Each structure stands twice: as structure tokens, then as C-alpha cells.
Amino acid sequence: MLILGIETSCDETAxxxxxxxxxxxxxxxxxxxxxxxxxxxxxxxxxxxQHIRDLQPTLQRALADAGVALADVDAVAVTHGPGLxxxxxxxxxxxxxxxxxxxxxLLGVNHLEGHIYAAWLxxxxxxxxxxxxxxPSNEPGFPLACLVASxxxxxxxxxxxxxxxxxxxxxxxxxxxEAFDKAARVLGLGFPGxxxxxxxxxxxxxxxxxxxxxxxxxxxAATPLPRAWMRDxxxxxxxxxxxxxxxxxxxxxxxxxSESIDQDADRLVAQLAREFQESLVDVMTAKLLTxxxxxxxxxLILGGGVTxxxxxxxxxxxxxxLPVVIPPPAxxxxxxxxxxAGAFYQYQRGDIADLSLDVDPSLPFGQPA
Length: 369
Fold this sequence. Notes:
Elements: E1 2-7, E2 12-19, E3 23-31, H1 33-37, H2 44-66, E4 75-81, H3 85-102, E5 106-110, H4 111-117, E6 122-123, E7 144-149, E8 154-161, E9 164-170, H5 176-186, H6 193-203, H7 217-222, H8 239-251, H9 265-294, E10 299-303, H10 310-319, E11 324-325, H11 329-332, H12 336-348, E12 367-368
């Protein structure tokens, strides 16, 4: 079964083509990062307009990459929530038109479920697909402990079967991706913040080691930032470490930005970026592993843009006693292939939409634990 998936929940216009929920034939993404960078974040109206411009050429390129014609498509899937209302409408209306024209089933997919199903994808065919992912099959089997971390969500999901999810932890304030974006602004870095924080943190290795005497700015920057463990829950909170970073940046003279020459600035930014990244990675890794043990999971799955972070991937793989499945970075960020993959299992359950399908910007995911 060949499914075409459309994803327009935020600032990526994405179309993917997947066969039988596993075989990745095409994955084309038109990023709007440069458009929104000047504003330091996503502007919903601009995003909606750009989706309208990009959907048709993105669709045509995906078909070309997959080596198929539109008439070969057996079903059309689309993200209908959660996300930005105007952005979602662009994708849903396009999917409806395609499904009606082709006379094929229409499937409305939850964006967060799509991020989990990115782990099932393996590349093939003539297109520009990412490297194969070690997708779950009969092993390790269910239940699976899933971390979905992005700009709008940081959720712990217990997947007990296809379509069977329990929400066991979520952020109480900022999502991890949002925290990375805000931290990057404080440190004078670019947008999106996650990749910028990672690059800055990795750059610290290039600086010559010095004697950081107590009380110096370098010593202040190297002091670990706090972690919000909230040990009575699997929920997350990242607003505190974000505020701590702001105060630390003020203490060492990095915030507010100054035009005066500071030869130490790059090193201080790199140090603070590393400490901030370590704080978020520590908490996400620890809570995911605690969840896996508590619910006797047989494996771990990571999905969402934040899980493209190299340090997070390294820590989870190093610390987990269970099998870990993390899609390639290109499949962690928003993409249409993950929507097509999730839609296949949804189709098997008979969960098919009709032309009354509407967007739901606050669409929930998973039953409360």
C-alpha cells in the first residue's frame, strides 16, 4: 500500500511517500527556517502563506523522488493536529483535494504519533531518502517507552501496541525545543536554537584549556546549571533552567548584548551552551529511563526535532540497558514520511476520515496514565 503523507503543522512543508508503513520511497522537506530566523521564532501568518507556495512543488518533487505517478497513490494522509491552525489548514485542504480527486482513502494523523512512527521507516528506492533506520519489528516488542521532544511538546508516551498510547509525562511549562530557542536568543545565537546550542557546545573543545580560578567569569560559566527533577512525577519543567541561564549570562556580561570587544565572549557562550544542553539532556534521559523501568518497557523510541540532538542521542544509547531506536536526524524533524508511516497502521485499524476532517490545533495524544 503506497501512502502519500503531508505535514504542515508548523514551519516545514513536507511530503513523504511510504509503502506498507515501512519502506521510505521519498521524503521532501521545504524548510522555512531562513524565513523565520529574522524574527527569532515562527510567525504563524508567514508560515501559512509559505505552505501554500511550497506544497505543489514539494509534492511534485516527492513523486519524482519516489519514481511514482500520483495515480499510483493508494491513500492520502495528513497531519490535522496539533499545530498552528493556519498551517494545518493548508495541508488538510490539499490532502482533501487529492483524496477526492484520486478517489482514495483520506487519513488524519496526529503529529505526535507520526514522530513515533518515524522509527519504523527504512529507506529504499531511487529518491533522496535518509539512511535506513533500525525499525522495530517483532523485537523488542511492546510496550515501548517513547520520548517525543520538539518545539511544542516534551512528552513521555507508553506505546502498548499500534494505536494504543498512554501519556505518562509531559512538560509543565516550556517544551525542550522552545527552551533551546529561548536559550539561543539569550546567548546571541541563531534560530532554530537547538542546532545552534549544539554547535556552540561542541565548539568548546576548540578552546585552549586555562586555569579557571574561582570567581572568574570562566569559572562562573563552567558551573553546572540546575536540573528540575520533580522526583514525584515523570513530568518536565524547563523554565527554571532557562531563567538560570539568563541570570548566568547577565553575571558574566553576555546579556544584554554589548558592542564592546570581549575576547572571552565566544568561550563563555560555548561554556554556557554546553551547561544548558547538559541540563536538558540529563533530565530527559533520566526520566525516559525511569519510565522504561517503571512500566517494564522492552525498548525505547525517540522522536521529534529535539531528538536530533547528538548529545541526547549519545546519552540515551550509552545509559539504556534496553534496545534504543532513534530515527536519522532528517526523520526526527517534521516530515511527511512519518505521517504516511503512521497512517498505514491507522488504515489497518479502519480509522479512516472523510471530507469533514478538520484541524485541531490542540489535538490530544495518548490516554492519561
